Amino acid sequence: MTLISIETFSQLPEKNSPLIKLNDLEIKFNDIVIFVEKVDELLTFKDTANLYLDLGETIQGQIFQIIKSGLRDIKIEQQYETSLSISNEGPHLDLFDWKHFTSSWIELKPIDKDKYKAESYSSSEQEKFPDFTETELIDYLNSIGRQGYADLISNPTYSDGSKHWWIGLSRVSIKVTGLDKDNNLVSRFINFEISMGC
């Protein structure tokens, strides 16, 4: 079970325009707070960058720019993923290792020279999720030692009848595909992990 705790990561020093470096690619994002396991990771990413957004931050609608590219004929695509989260009136458990809905990749067209705008998602898109039963969810929670959360599903306590769980956006990925110096078709990925807490 993967539990993401922002406190275990290092915040990048400035909010404005973090520069993400991969093997043969540099991309700058505007006005966003991200976390990494080590601050110097931005200098050492290879094919994939895994970044963690601060609570309340979003990649949706963000403008980003290809600053430097060793790839030719590049294509930029975006994909999103939803997960299930369970709330205990404050503490919450994000089930990143259980079921997910994963969208198709959609191509992003440049809005200016080397500049792109990340796609935004409607409420209905963010609520897409595979079918499941609450019994299945309870069994999974018990199997990973989360009986307290399983009890919340079994014995809901909200007077208005609302559930302790909800579906939300948990990851947005950017994929850059192009030809490298040896004419091989390669892809680079930037994954933005999203905290689902309130």
Spell out the blueprint of helices and strands:
Elements: E1 10-11, E2 19-22, E3 25-29, E4 34-36, E5 48-53, E6 63-69, E7 72-87, E8 92-95, E9 101-102, E10 106-108, E11 115-117, H1 123-126, H2 134-143, H3 147-154, E12 165-179, E13 185-194
Parallel strand pairs: 5-13
Antiparallel strand pairs: 1-4, 2-3, 3-6, 4-5, 6-11, 7-8, 7-9, 7-10, 7-12, 12-13
Helix pairs in contact: 2-3
Account of the 3D structure:
With 198 residues, the chain is mainly beta. It has one domain (9-194). Helices cover 11% and strands 40% of the residues. The protein has helices at 123-126, 134-143, 147-154, and strands spanning 10-11, 19-22, 25-29, 34-36, 48-53, 63-69, 72-87, 92-95, 101-102, 106-108, 115-117, 165-179, 185-194. Strands 1, 4, 5, 7, 8, 9, 10, 12 and 13 form a 9-stranded mixed β-sheet that branches. A 4-stranded antiparallel β-sheet has the order 2-3-6-11, with no helix packed on it. Helix 2 (134-143) runs antiparallel to helix 3 (147-154). The protein is elongated. Mean pLDDT is 84; it is low at 1-15.
Outline:
By secondary structure, the protein is mostly beta strands. The chain has helices spanning 123-126, 134-143, 147-154; strands spanning 10-11, 19-22, 25-29, 34-36, 48-53, 63-69, 72-87, 92-95, 101-102, 106-108, 115-117, 165-179, 185-194. The strands form two sheets. Strands 1, 4, 5, 7, 8, 9, 10, 12 and 13 form a nine-stranded mixed beta sheet that branches. Strands 2-3-6-11 form a four-stranded antiparallel beta sheet, with no helix packed on it.
